[in-house]
Amino acid sequence: MLDESPKRFDRIISILIQLQSKRIVKAQELADRFEVSLRTIYRDIRSLETSGVPIYSEPGVGYSLVDGYRLPPVMFTREEATSFIASEKLMETFIDKELGKHYASAMFKIKSVLKNTDKDWLSSIESKVIIQQPSVHLFNEKVPDAMSILFKSIANKTQVKLLYQAFDSDSFERIIEPVGVFHDNNNWYIFGFCHLRKDYRQFRADRIQGIEQTNILFVREHNTLETYLNKEKECPTTQVILLVDKKIVKYLDYEKKYHGFVSQKKIDDKIEMIFLSRDIENGFSRWLLMFADYATIIEPQRLKERMLEMLESYKINLLK
């Protein structure tokens, strides 16, 4: 019992901090975070209430602190402070200028409450951590506040107007209701309901040529971003089987998962690779072109035809 008391005290303090960080916190959310039972969370909440913390609870909704109640600023441990370095470097590299500026301002405030010894500790590490710039531009430099506007749109549930440059067309205007943003395969994407197409679409952040916040509220109730992304994974697929030279397989490890990789096995001196591709007409076939001289297409026949079409088009363009 003596061993458990310090752990319980730390957990109760952490619960109080989490209650301050969000307007409503569900009991199950707390139980999952601290890996304890719901009964334990209920007991910890009662302990906070007994100590005078004004907690409002509503069955089926969650817990929240009464408006106006705040604890003095919480000091960070050295380990927590160290984690700021990685997050700061990542934000400098992978977010747009506007949000990056706000994050830098927030970091100055956070660092201002650290003990002097911890400030020195961070200073000694900061210059030793470098995150290389991505090889492509994640955002259009002419639209430095795209992510900031999208976040406001999601929070306020207001539509945004995009001027968007598709891969193979001129710029066009779209009115969307953003559901969320996600980073995948070295790019940021915005997923939202497009009023022109009357359906959900995703847009790459670097192709946004202009963005404008509107005061028009969403006309739909949207599910969580994860719901739609999981549904996209259930789209119709085509099985692709390739025989690939062993010497090239290791170079495909990073990107193969983005093209529906399923499995691979050794067959004589080759590696059989199986994919379930959602786009053999463009995405998969263009990727395959990079190592086509080291691969044999077993199936489908349509992929073979598509590769020949692309090579013939390339030959014609080369001779112009």
Automatic annotation (TrEMBL):
<dbReference type="InterPro" id="IPR028349">
    <property type="entry name" value="PafC-like"/>
</dbReference>
<dbReference type="InterPro" id="IPR013196">
    <property type="entry name" value="HTH_11"/>
</dbReference>
<dbReference type="InterPro" id="IPR057727">
    <property type="entry name" value="WCX_dom"/>
</dbReference>
<dbReference type="InterPro" id="IPR051534">
    <property type="entry name" value="CBASS_pafABC_assoc_protein"/>
</dbReference>
<dbReference type="Pfam" id="PF08279">
    <property type="entry name" value="HTH_11"/>
</dbReference>
<dbReference type="InterPro" id="IPR036388">
    <property type="entry name" value="WH-like_DNA-bd_sf"/>
</dbReference>
<dbReference type="Pfam" id="PF13280">
    <property type="entry name" value="WYL"/>
</dbReference>
<dbReference type="InterPro" id="IPR026881">
    <property type="entry name" value="WYL_dom"/>
</dbReference>
<dbReference type="InterPro" id="IPR001034">
    <property type="entry name" value="DeoR_HTH"/>
</dbReference>
<protein>
    <submittedName>
        <fullName>Helix-turn-helix transcriptional regulator</fullName>
    </submittedName>
</protein>
<keyword id="KW-0804">Transcription</keyword>
<keyword id="KW-0805">Transcription regulation</keyword>
<dbReference type="Pfam" id="PF25583">
    <property type="entry name" value="WCX"/>
</dbReference>
<dbReference type="InterPro" id="IPR036390">
    <property type="entry name" value="WH_DNA-bd_sf"/>
</dbReference>
<feature type="domain" description="HTH deoR-type">
    <location>
        <begin position="8"/>
        <end position="63"/>
    </location>
</feature>
